[in-house]
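Thread title: Can someone regenerate the structure for this chain?

I was given the following input by a collaborator and told the matching structure tokens would be attached. They weren't. Posting the sequence so someone can regenerate them.
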Amino acid sequence: MLHTSNLGFPRIGFHRELKKGLEKYWKAELTQQDLLEIAKTIRMTNWQLQHDLGIEVIPSNDFSFYDQILDTICMVGAVPSRYQVISKEFDLDVYFAMARGKQKDNVNIPAMEMTKWFNTNYHYIVPEIEPDSRFSFIYQKILADYLEAHKAGFQTRPVLIGPLTFLLLSKTTAPGFSPLEKLEELLPVYQSVLTELYKAGAEWIQIDEPILVKELSTQVKEAFQTAYQILCGIPNRPQLMLTSYFGSPGENTDLAFSLPVEGIHLDLVSEESSWDILDAIPLEGKILSLGIVNGHNIWRTDLEHVLEELKKHPSLSGDIYLAPSCSLIHVPLDINLEEHIAEPMKSWLSFAVQKLEEISALATVFNEGKKSSRFIKNQEALKSRSSFLSQHGSGIEQKAFLERNTERKHAFPKRKEVQQSLLNLPLFPTTTIGSFPQTKEIRRARSRFSKGELSREEYESFMKNEINNVIQIQEKIGLDVLVHGEFERNDMVQYFAEQLEGFIFTENGWVQSFGSRYVRPPILFGNVSRPHAMTTRWISYAQSLTSKPVKGMLTGPVTILQWSFVRDDQPRSLTCFQIADAINAEVLDLEKAGIHIIQIDEPALREGLPLKKDNWQAYLDWAVRAFHIAFAGVADETQIHTHMCYSEFNEIIASIAALDADVISIEAARSGMELLNVFSGFQYPNDIGPGIYDIHSPRIPSIAEMTALLEKAAQVIPPTQLWVNPDCGLKTRNWQEVTPALQNMVEAAKILRSNTK
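Best answer:
Regenerated them for you:
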């Protein structure tokens, strides 16, 4: 018998209610009670929808005001002591201060560090665990959400981040200490959570341990055994569904199945060999949850193929639960909200709602032997897409991209000499990452132009005025390398994808990146090419307004690939090379237009790493090759920059160096320059700009704070190689925050110059 289940549903609301509510609450335009009511409405809507779609096992506690790891930090009481000045008792103000920082009422506290969630573009707050950390069950949202659902008539399965994943994703500042050492002290909180949920009536708990898809040491494997012997030894507790995703547990499969949990969830779509697990291990004694619908991409599932696979494995018996591969927070809500995607392409796509429909349709045909209309439409859509792809070959083949000469004419030392002679930049040159605040007026102008309410002449006049203003502001602040502000751009990936062949776009396909920051990933369905120049006229106009160099701003091929929903019928490397080829045409046009500094952002390079290290090098080889293709053919005088954010570089630093960008800027402020530790043991050959201004927080860092970060950076990187810049683009901030912060940044650079002989 097949049953239907879900691991998590988007919490943003069908009309971005959570984003709008959060941002109004942060501006004191909504009360806390108003925000709580918005959250409750979203949860109720989600539970009812999943029930109506035929999902038997519905999750609770998959809703979060900001991030599920932040929720877990608060749940177990691991709130860093510095936030106690806000309130001795935990509340939402403390919660949001941890996520965003606080600079108000004589309180000036930075936000906690943030980084990427495995191989996704979702960001989580990094737990801070120290030797003196103490734990207690203080934030009881998981219990409150379950009781809320139960009262409304929904028997849900609460979602809980497992203790091993929580500790192994944590950081510490104590030398020689591992957060894993706190496992024994953490487990009583988990025991309390399970006990309280059992008392409330919970029958099952989904306990997420995605760390199982990574390589684990013997110590960690032993810790898993210890932890789950203790948790499963509680006399009165719900049954546990141990859940991993984003890949197969691989060598950890035996470990997972040896744990005394009642159920195991397997992701069967992320790796081709995942189905083999079902024949390789004894399945008796475990309830299986099979992730047969891709929760990380938006193409229709081949239900006929899955049905055949299910029938192939005689070891599958008893009650089996069908589910998405992972939580559906990584895909948009409902394809039916899209009015402008034409058929047949629209039929090829499956968002969160459609993925649950697919699960229900598959269970129905398996259990009843009758193909529903949903099942039949699924097969028709797949045939339509297959026919399209067969008529549209991949264009340039992989071999041609691999054989192309992409090397710069001279090595970096020679290039730097030529570039410095041309640019005449000071020591510790200052710049920004690219974007400046996008005001309501800017967004309104873009919207009116797209709707035909502004003529092209009116729109371009408006944008040129904004560019003129931002050039003047930067010159007044005293920045050395300027940018044009990116006011014409809706998103760093979508803007380019809209001008390239091979993409389609959504109007309401929002996906959470972090907190109230949502993105609409483009859908890459076919071959990529550049029919016309994309940025040259805007950058050239900005450069005409100043004698200082203006950077050309482009998004790199790996990031466009990673932050799009990508076709799954050919190697990702070939698709990436096609994108790189299109970006290269833009780079060469910018160079011809007299732009001497061109930034090709690759914030998603680290994110694209396969979760298993054995597969890293193959990915890094083609990712580096794609970046080289993007700047192939530029002169030594052209300075190539790149930018990366929220990434740990330690294990891939050699590949970062192999990119051979003249200047790389990275996020470093939130971590207090911890990300620079790798450079103390690796002599990075080119220039680097470690961010000293955390732009994801509304705080305005002081001159002293930025100076201290720069001095810390100068201890591991020679001053002649250091640039000064924020962590990331300034698009989401306002001018009241940005102007003083950049003024402080420029002053910090001046102090370092005066102190450096």
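The radius of gyration is 26 Å.
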